[in-house]
Structure formats: structure tokens, C-alpha cells
Amino acid sequence: MNLLDLPLAPSAEYEHVFNQFTIRVSRRDELRDYLRMKGIPSDVYYPIPLHLQPAFAGLGYRGGEFPHSEAASAEVISLPVYPELKDEKQDLIVAAFREFYLGRG
Fold first, then answer.
1. Which of 17, 60, 75, 76 is spaced 20 to 30 Å from 50 by Cα?
2. Is 21 part of a structural domain of the chain?
3. How far apart are CA 30 and CA 34, in angstroms?
4. How far is 28 from 36, CA to CA, in rounded Å?
5. Which of these ranges, 10-19, 21-30, 61-70, has the smallest mean pLDDT?
């Protein structure tokens, strides 16, 4: 992930209203299980890309026609983000990522 892809912090006179922070990672499902074990909520909002969902079956798209969408649906995970998320909780989330990907505890 490129830091330029991160959302900009709001100016001091405003508060953000983000309700999820979605990132793209390798080993997404393993990471989700690990975060759950650590008590850190996460979610996968679109595990099936839109073009393959039953509601859009009438459009006639098949697997492989939108490879970027299909790859993203297998690799994205949404993390908690809200104004009341304390620095300590953010530190726990970062530490969990470090432990999972770097094996450091």
C-alpha cells in the first residue's frame, strides 16, 4: 500500500465520519481469524465481486471477466475506524498486524 492512497486527515475544525478502513492484504482470511482471536473486529463486505453476485446474474458476466475486481474481493478487509477509537486500541491493532506478518510479539 502506498501512503498516498491513505485518506487525508480532516482539518482541525472537523471530525471524520469514516466507518471502515479497507485495506488490501495477502493471507486475508488467515489475518481475519488472527484479528478475531485478538478481539479486533474486522469484516469483509464483498467476498464475492458484484458481477458474480446472484442479483447481477442477468448481466451474464462470468468469473475471469473482471480479474482486478475478483482479486480485490479476495484480498480486502475492513478494519474499525471511528472518532472514539483510542490511540491504545490503534496500537493494539498495529501490534497484531506486526505479530501476524512479521512474527513479532
1. 17
2. yes
3. 6
4. 12
5. 10-19
